Amino acid sequence: xxMETYRWQRKHxxxxxxxxxxxxxxxxxxxxxxxxxxxxxxxxxxxxDTLERAMSAADQAVAAHAPHDCGRTGCGxxxxxxxxxxxxxxxxxxxT
Length: 96
Ligand SMILES: [Zn+2]
What we know:
Number of strands: 5
Shape: globular
Bound molecules: zinc ion
Number of helices: 2
Distance between the termini: 28 Å
Number of domains: 1
């Protein structure tokens, strides 16, 4: 059984910098907007049918949080984030 979690992240070179990510939630397969640096406004905390719509909503939320010109400030592109290794994986005892 696979834990098929998709996560994309974009770092905006705004002031202050704002990193947003979109996560695919299962089993429905909807996309949601998250951020580690700031509170995503309630209007952007929704479920989106497509990755593109979620990314667009995330960018708009950043623009509202820290207005800037993505092209001029050289914001990074949306990048896929590989899933973090799970602590519970068997046979990987860090003490040995
Ligand atoms: Zn930007």
